[in-house]
Amino acid sequence: MPTRPDYDVLVLGGGPAGSTAAALLAREGRRVALLEREHMPRYHVGESLLPSVLPFLEELGVADVVAKHGFQKKVGQTFVWGRDRTPWVLDFRELDVYPYAYFVERAQFDELLLRNAGRLGAEVHEGVSVEDVLTDGDRVVGVRAKRTDTGEMWSPTARYVIDATGQNALLAKRAGDRQYVEGLRSLAVWSYWEGAGRLPPPADEHIVTISTETGWIWFIPMQNGRTSVGVVTSDVEELRGESGSRADDIAAFYLRTIRRAELVGELLTGATQVDGMHTQRDWSYCARRFTGPGFLLAGDAACFIDPILSTGMHLAMTGGYNAALAVHSALAEPAHEPAFMRYYQRSYATTYRELLTQVRHFYQMEIHRDAVFWKSRRILRVDPRLDNSLAFVFLTSGLARHVTAVAPHDLTGQSRAAFSRRLEQDGRVDYRPNARDRDLAHAARLVVTGADGSLIAFEQEGMRLRLRPTAEAPFSARPARTAFLVEIARGSDGLPIGTLLIEAARPNLPPGARTVRGFAVHARPYRGRDGDSALLRDAAGAAVQAIHESAETSLASLEDDVRAALSSSDGTTWDLTTPADLGDAAAATMPVTAEFVRASDGEGLWVVVDARRAPEALENPFWRGRLVDASYTSEVERDPPPADVIALMARVTDALTAIESECRTVSEALARAPEALARLAPDAWTLSGVRRIELTD
Ligand SMILES: Cc1cc2nc3c(=O)[nH]c(=O)nc-3n(C[C@H](O)[C@H](O)[C@H](O)COP(=O)(O)OP(=O)(O)OC[C@H]3O[C@@H](n4cnc5c(N)ncnc54)[C@H](O)[C@@H]3O)c2cc1C
After folding, report:
1. CA pair distance 270, 121, nearest whole angstrom
2. Among candidate residues 397, 441, 435, 454, the one with its CA nearest the CA of residue 101
3. Burial class (CB in 10 A: 0-12, 13-18, 19+), 505
4. What percent of the chain has pLDDT over 90?
5. Any long-range contacts for 148-155 (C-beta under 8 Å, 24+ apart)?
6. Which of 123-132, 168-177, 567-576 has the highest mean pLDDT?
């Protein structure tokens, strides 16, 4: 490593991934150079965005500029897919937040993002082609680049290199570790049209997607009356024609296919093709790893998925964003570089895998719409009562992983924000943190050092990881608060019985919520604590009274008054719970799992005992103790749970209560949980194993 590198970060490639990373790093005061081979504006395919891109635009400070630019709005997608040729739609307007996206001329959109990186302080070098990387031992420490106009060579060095060179994938290809996805190796052929018709509103703002025998067709209504029409085919034989010229064969195949297609053929009647033919290999792939010593891969350089669901730009900006977060944090805390790189690898790989699963499912051409919806629900692990189509919208808007990447411990709360009204009517999103999220939590805890450094404080305050990579240099201010939670415990033994959620009054409040002075108070008992609901209602009454008497008008100051009023109870009836020893809970990230099998039908049920979390983190666990929480996952989800599951959980609850009374810390309770669970001898269930999960890298 050179003693003083020229830059903190070199970003290779000025597409959406590179510009996002460079802009955020520069904004945080990092010395960044971005090297782009072309001069902007340059042409690029990929016009159809997802709503998930909007929060990135906000974060980059260009949401207004993009909104005013005149790009065509996109509110959904119309499909004619599979055997049943009845059109069906994906409607982003079902989402309360970010209910739309855009169709963009990429030359303009990409230039806008690149100039923004410059505006925020990145050194932007156009017409500079990166030829090779410089290494010191294993570590990438810089690049060799050529100025395309003069041929002059340049060898800048940096602490980190982010490869965002798109499908060129300078570093990933060098490492030779790209894996292609079987069954998703297609070719795309497309061109642009003027004078094409539009479907009636709101489908005039939809991308139209039609399956064919060997692939699919896209029809994208763009600004100024232009339309992008493309054909994706997995059968290159189809392209071979009689003309003897490959270019002519491709053009003939293209016209033949789109003219014959349902909806699209008709919309193109009388339209004029205003551009030549474009072709590009459309093979889905993923690099074996997204990071290595001194470097990260972002956007198409890391992974690519067939564009059927318009996921490319979402992945690119997610990659750019998370790469900036990881690098910025690693520069601030070099000792924790591996944790930040792991966070990047895992969060990005999960996003990729989930979308790939959905796209592969789509590619089973005979699939029915309901099966697609169902698949989304399975991928997101949402509550069975939640509308299937909404799960599909949530996943294909790209917002699902914003939620977990942004606030790993509060999918429920975040989803509430995303869905609010629908969620109140239709149910809840059920979420169980997995190993990846724990790792993210670890990274999050490290990056908030300087505040008080504790994980639970991070959760309690609803702080969002993306908003606060380090205490000294936050990405931006904390979000405005829209609600607060108070957790209530039973006075006699301190066991938490539920929460009170206090928020600004709004339409569609759930039944039972009480409003006072423009605020709403909801009492939400924890599962298994129904017997204490009268107590919780009393506490809610006291909160309502406190709001009534308070002179405060903002939620933040009101919270102090409500807490003060609730804690002035004598403590023998209810009490405000204080979360378990925070440092201890943060360290105790090894849940205990017990696997039970129902003797009568062999169905599996997993009981998970985990460190107690902030109330926002687990909306409604089956059992919630002073130190640990217990919940279950069953092979077949049923709501309400069957009687034998409730009976089993009651046994678990007793066992844990006994342990907790003898333990002082979360770690102690977790260490003793396996022995207590192993001693359970429930009727009707066979215990097939208890273990404490070691989260390895
Ligand atoms: C047929 C097709 C249709 C698609 N449709 C959509 C869609 O509708 N919606 C969607 O979201 N996505 C779509 N995509 C995907 C989308 O285009 C990409 O995922 C997205 O552009 C990736 O952004 P990026 O920043 O990673 O890479 P890019 O946008 O490709 O940017 C990479 C940049 O790196 C530069 N570069 C390359 N090599 C070097 C080098 N050696 N030195 C310096 N600079 C270099 C390039 O000039 C380029 O500007 C589609 C893709 C295909 C193939």
Report:
1. 48
2. 397
3. middle
4. 36
5. 148/37, 154/128
6. 123-132
Label residues 75-114 b or e (16+ Cβ within 10 Å = b).
Answer: bbbbbbbbeeeebbbbbbebbeebbbbbbbbbeebbbbbb
Please report the pLDDT score of residue 95 as a whole number. 67
**Comparison of pLDDT for 136 and 529, the residue scoring more:** 136
Q: What share of the chain is helix, strand, coil (3-state, %, to 5)?
A: 40, 25, 35
Q: Which helix (H) or strand (E) holds 36?
A: strand 32-36
Residue with tokens 């996109």: 74
Structure tokens at 138: 């294993």
Mutate which of 20, 36, 52 for ligand 1? The one with the most ligand atoms within 8 Å of its CB, which is 36
- Dihedral sign, Cα of residue 261, residue 266, residue 270, residue 274: negative
Q: Is the CB of 34 under 6 A from ligand 1?
A: no
CB 272 within 8 A of CB 195: yes
Ligand 1 center from residue 283 Cα (angstroms): 13
**How big is the chain, counted in residues?**
697
* Cβ atoms of residues 392 and 373 within 8 Å: yes
Question: Is pLDDT larger for residue 62 or for residue 492?
Answer: 62
Rounded to whole angstroms, what are the CA distances from 28 to 110, 331, 441, 475, 617? 21, 11, 22, 7, 29
Rounded Cα gap, residues 588 and 591, in angstroms: 8
Question: What domains does the chain contain, in order, with CATH numbers?
Answer: 7-47+105-180+284-351 (3.50.50.60), 187-281 (3.30.9.100), 483-576 (no CATH), 585-692 (no CATH)
> Mapping DSSP to helix (H, G, I), strand (E, B) and coil, where does residue 630 land?
strand
- Ligand 1 pocket, 204 CB below 6 A? no
Residue 281 has pLDDT above 60, yes or no: yes
How many Å apart are CA 361 and CA 298, to the nearest integer?
A: 25
Q: What percent of the chain has pLDDT over 70?
A: 77
Cβ burial of 228 (10 Å; 0-12, 13-18, 19+) is: buried
- What pLDDT, in 10s, does the model give residues 326-378? 888 788 777 778 877 877 887 788 788 888 888 887 777 566 666 666 666 56
Averaged confidence pLDDT in the chain: 79
Residue 384: predicted pLDDT:
45
How many angstroms is it from 251 CA to the middle of ligand 1?
23
Task: Say whether pTM exceeds 0.90.
Answer: no
Least Cα distance to 652 among 621, 614, 694, 620 occurs for: 621
pLDDT for the residue 176: 62
The residues, any chain, with a CB within 8 Å of residue 238's CB and separated by 6 or more, are 214, 253
Measured between alpha carbons, how far is 103 from 52 in angstroms, rounded to an integer?
13
If pLDDT is split at 50, 70 and 90, which confidence band does 547 have?
Answer: very high
The backbone torsions φ and ψ at residue 334, rounded to the nearest 5 degrees and listed phi first, read -55, -30
pLDDT tens for 376-416 read: 656 655 544 455 666 677 777 776 655 433 333 333 333 33
What separation in Å is there between the alpha carbon of 109 and the centre of ligand 1?
12
Report the residue among 165, 174, 254, 396 best suited for mutation to probe ligand 1: largest number of ligand atoms under 8 A from its CB: 165
Closest among 382, 372, 311, 83 to 213, alpha carbons compared: 83
Residue 507 vs residues 364, 480, 503, 504, 540: alpha-carbon distances, Å: 41, 20, 12, 10, 20
Task: Calculate the CA 254 to chain-centre distance.
Answer: 36
